[in-house]
Structure formats: C-alpha cells, structure tokens
Design brief:
heterodimer; A: 103 residues; 1 helix; 11 strands; 45% strand; B: 695 residues; alpha+beta; Rossmann fold; Elongation Factor Tu (Ef-tu), domain 3; Alpha-Beta Plaits; 8-stranded antiparallel beta sheet; 7-stranded mixed beta sheet; 37 strands; globular
Amino acid sequence: MRSSRLHWMRGRTEEGPGEARTVEWIGWDETGRAVARVVRLQGPLFEGWRLYRAVALDPDGRVVELRPTPPEGADWLACIGGRVVGRAALPLQAVRTAEAALG
Amino acid sequence: MPGTPLEKIRNIGITAHIDAGKTTTTERILYYTGMSYKIGEVHEGTTTTDYMDQERERGITITSAAVTCEWQGYRINIIDTPGHIDFNIEVNRSLRVLDGAIFIIEGVAGVQPQSETNWRLADRYNVPRIIFINKLDRTGADFFRATATLKEKLDIVALPLQLPIGIEDKFQGVVDLVEMKGVIWEGGELGAKYHDAPIPAELAEQAREYRQLLLDTALSVDDAAMEEYFEKGNVALATLKRCIKAGTISGAFRPVLCGTAFKNKGVQPLLDAVVDYLPSPIDVPGIKVAALEGEDEGAQAERRVIKADPKAPFAGLAFKIINDKYGTLTFVRVYAGTLRSGDTVLNTTKGHRERIGRMFQMHADKRAEIKEVSAGDIVAFVGLKDTATGDTLAVAGDPVVLERMAFPVPVIDISVEPRTKDAVEKMTLGLQKLAAEDPSLRLRTDPESGQTILSGMGELHLEIIIDRLKREYGVEADIGEPQVAYRETISRAHTETYTHKKQSGGAGQYAEVKVLFEPVERNGGIVFENKVVGGTVPKEYIPAVEKGIRAQADTGVLAGFPTVDFRYTLLDGKYHDVDSSALAFEIAAKACFREGMKKAAPIILEPIMDVEVTTPQDHVGDVVGDLSRRRGLIQSQESSGSTIIVRAHVPLKEMFGYISDLRSMTKGRASFTMQFHHYDPVPRAIADEIMAKSA
C-alpha cells in the first residue's frame, strides 16, 4: 500500500564524487500531471557578485530561492506549482508537507 | 576466529567521559559473548581490561586494552580506552586505527567535556560511531535530555534507534524502533535473559513518532530506499538496516541506543548494532598515505589511499608500544597485505628493516600466538628493535608511509631524582622505556640544574608514571612540586645579524648569519625558511643553521622555557673558505637566536584549562567566586536537574590542589574535570615572578 497520495519519482540529480544523489522529487497525480515537487536547497552560487549559500531551482532550473544562509533545519523546500509551501529538514518530511498543502 | 572474512570483522573502540561506564560495558560484552565466565566489576578491581595494578587499585582505566570476541558469527576487536583526560593519548591512538566506535554518554549528565574532546578526535580521524546512553537506572537519568545534549554540544543529527521502557529504578528495557517491538530484560542470569514484548500502550504514540523520524532520516541517504517507501508505505528490515549503516558510515546521522550496563540491560542490542551498523575494514575508504615533505597537508584528495586487501603489499601502522617482562610488544593495525612470523618488513618512517619475531592476538594482558596476520587485523609483534608509535611498517616493494599521528602537548613538569645515587642509570632507563610507550610523556635534563624533568598531561598522569617506575623498574624516586609547562614566544618581528669569529691561532671558526624572527599564530610551531640567494651561506651549512636555532629554542631567553610559534628566515650571511664549518654556523645560529629573541618582544605563555565544575545549586556562588579569584573566565552556567554545571577557562597554575579547596567549599558535593584548552600570555606580574624564580 502506498503511503502517499501522489506518485513520487526522482527528478534532477546532483553529480559529484561518488553516487549521484537525487536533489528533486516530483509528485505526479493519478492523471500523470506533476503537481508537486520537493527540492533540496543548493549552493553556494554567485549571483550579482554576491555569494548565496541557499539556492533552490524550479522545474526549468531557474532560481526560486536565494538566501545568504540556509534557514536552520530546512534543507528541503516543498513546492506546489512555482510556489514554496513549506520547508523541512528531510525529503520525506517535505513530501508530507507538500501533500498536506494540497489539502 | 582466524581466517574470518573481512566483511565479518569489526574493529571498534569504546570511549567516553570518565566514569560513564566504558569498562563496565566492555565487561558485559565479554560475558555475553562467552569470552569470560563471570562479569568483572570496576569497583571490585576484577575487570578484564583494567589489568594494571594501578587501574585495579584506583578503579580507573589508564591504558587502552585490546580484547576480541565473537557475536552472531562476527569477530569484534574492541579497544577499551581511558576516560581521564590525562590519558587522552590512549584514546587518540586508538581512534586513529579503529574502523568504528561506541560513544558512551552518561544518562544523567549527557555530553560531558571528555566526550566532546573524544568526539572531536573521532571527527579528525573520520571514525563512524554509534552512541549508547548509559546509566538510565540512575536517579535523574533522562534519555531525551541526554539526547538533546548531543545536538547542543556536538552539533550532530542524533537518531534514536531505541526508546527506554521505564526510567531510573523502573527501567526495564527498550522499544526497538527498527523492528517496532519491545525488549525486556528479565533480571537474574546477569542480564543474559531477555525477551521480545509488545510495545507498552503508553509508549505506542511516542514510538510511532520516533519510528517516523527514523524512517525520514535513515531513508534520506538512499534514493532507492525512498522509492521503496513511496511504493509500499514501508521498507523491508534489510533496507532500513542498510540505510542506517550507510548514514552511520557517512556521518549523516549518529544512531543512539540506550540501557544500563551496570544493571545488565541493553548491551546485547548494542552488540547487534555494532555488527549491523558499524563498518568492516572494507566498508571504510581506507587509509591515506602521508603527505610528502613540503606538500600541503590539506591536499588530501590527491594522496593515495591504501584499501583493506589481504592480497595487496603489506602496510601496517604501529600505534602502541608496551614493555613488559617478556620484552617489547608493538601493537600494529594491519591495513593491507599478509605477513607471517619470520618475515622482514621495512620501517618506512625511519628507513630501516625490522624482522618480525613472534606475533600475538592480544586479550587484555593475555596473548595467543598466531602465525599469520592480514588486512583488518589488530595484533602485537615481538622483536621489533626500533619502531615507535606512529611508524609505518611496509614491504620494500611498496614502501608507503601512512598518515602520521598527532600527539598532545604536555602541560605539567616535575623534577625526578632517584633516592640513591646508584639508581640513576636504572631510573633513566626506566623513564626512557616509559616515554617510548607513551608519546604524551617527555623526558629532558634541565641544562642548569642537571635535574631530570618529566613533562606530562596532568598530575595524575605523572603520579602513575612515578608509581610505575617504582613497581616495574624498582626505582624509588623523589619528585619536585608539579610545575606549569610554560612556553615562550615572541610578539613582534626582528632581524638579527650575528658573526661568530674565532681566528686567533690554530684552526679558525667563521660564520655570519642574518635571521628574521617573526611570530606565527598559536600552535603554528617553529617554521624555517631559507631565503639566501647567491650562495652567501653555502648550501651545506644551511641545515646547521636550522639545527642550531631549533636546539637553542628549547631554552627560551626569558626563563628558559621552550620557545614556540615563531618563524625564522635565513636572509643572508657570510662565510670563509677555510675557517667556516657546519659547527661554526650552528654556533652562530644559536647566538643569533639568543640575541634576536631578546629584541623581538618575548613573552611567556601559560596553559589555560577548560574547567567544568558540577555543583549543587546552593554552592554555585562560592564556586564561581573562587574560579574568578583563580583568574578564571566563566564561560557558561547550565542547570542539569538539581545541579549546576559551571564552565570556565582557568590558568593551570591556579588549579593545583583545586580538588581539596572545592571539596571543603561544597562539603564534598561538587566535582570537577579539566582539560587543556589553549596557551595564553601570562600577566606581567606573574611573568616577573616566573623570571625571578628562574634567574
């Protein structure tokens, strides 16, 4: 029995030393529409000559979150559409946050 | 279990603050794994790993002891380490060669200073670890508060794998969050009997909450496990265990278990966790070879890694030396290859050959001879002539040098004199052997008084050494008052030129050196740079300049203490075709140091200790006032149940005899621990006092 309302599948991965890790999980509804996503904060990134440490990207890879420092215990963003609906320390928690926001 | 496959070997250490229950836990492990037929007790002086007379008399661990046991078909090599800060070298060298560790945290006090120090050491060596919150039967024990201190003081993600069932005198067992069941100890049979039980109804909600936290945290390290969870709403036990092991090894989180070793509850699941979650020698990345001379230590990514492989060329690290009635035992962690007794290896640190005599598997002070050792083993060799702690043994065909070990700096000196004149030689020999065993013990002769000076980590450390000198080497010695191991340094740059000239009659001596002396940051050591151009000081004399200054730095210009934390740059010089020699340049360098240092604003540094006093609330005012009078700077005051923990930085000089003052101040209800924190300049008035004493 599935624990979640949506079908969650791997999205973007982060290449690096060792195994590539998923930095984005996409939640699909029964009609096959991507309705939610959880995204790991990334960075550091230079933007306008400033260094930002907390960076999350939207489905097209555009920056949706930019901060000088990451908020404490909020490495993952729960997004519905292009909107950030919550944050969580861990991806499974962010998944629950996103599903809760769907009502 | 000779011939155990590598994946079924666990090399682990048990470490904690003093009196948190390391040796007590080790004793239970040996009993439940069938290695001992009865449980020894620290307070009775009957434990296996505390085998030295001093350990049994004092009820503390002084030296780390290696034991081997078997659990569920796995071989577990355990090193039980001391908790007292004076013997921290034992923790240091053990963590250096282990693949994993159990950190025992006291259930009442939570993380204590020595736990923090050892934790940082384990960080330095990237040792995967699991945490055991012990003593949950004690009054005031609180699993959740102790777990919270892990986050507060160690800044880690602490992941409970268990919750306690009952607490203090009602502690009966644990909720196993991995298998979602209760485990209850039945009492009697010394804790060997326990059974599974349903999770108590009053804990069901809390268990569900913590199980979810466990899944959220553990699965986040493995994408395939996340997919399994999304698909099935749960994960297989094997998947969850795989994730916990991966997170433990990477350090993404630290699993937390609990129990009370003294009351024989919780130790068997701890052993299961060692097998399930701590790495085998092939699960860890391997050991890096040492940086080459002049190479940046930070450029680690580029360095070669030696992986555990019995078929690879042999490589091992000597991490401990013991001298006993049978000779010198050298403890070695074998990282790669296979070796048989009678083989010859190369000590690649020193560049000479060593023949392996006999080889032993150690069980505390007992030994079992073995004929072959291979990757992953921790063994002792007999017959090595000149191998010290930190040396690498390898084969001539692949003479690697493994990463070196860092040793702590001694902070206390005492003078030692034998009671009878004819014991001088015996005492020197004994102390040399003890210093060879213990890299945190230094031995030197005071050039002015001719006295033998022992430098160590604290009063207890030196007391034990003097006791061992008497018991093991039959030397009765008188000791002086403990002295603070001051250091000297400089506070501004100065360039000095010195000419050494002796050209009247016979073979002459001529050397001139121009040296820039500069301060470097604290713990920067002594750094030499050669900026001579055009051969004004011939190449062959440069080592003599370096040697001369380093030798002279042992005797500082203010009060004769070793001079540290400065850079000296040889800028220029002059030589004479006939009269110059290495000796002349060494003499010139020494004199240049003496003159130059005086003009570089020399200062005296003193060791500052991190002191933690645990006191009942009604005495906190007295304790804080007294620490301030001792030139202490209060860092924090925290309440822990009915007691207050006061933390302060206090000069070591002011801490001699503190225990008796604290006892009388608090009617014996307070206790304290201290460890070295940093060196700071001494105030002017005290510097004058020190200089007057040394004059």
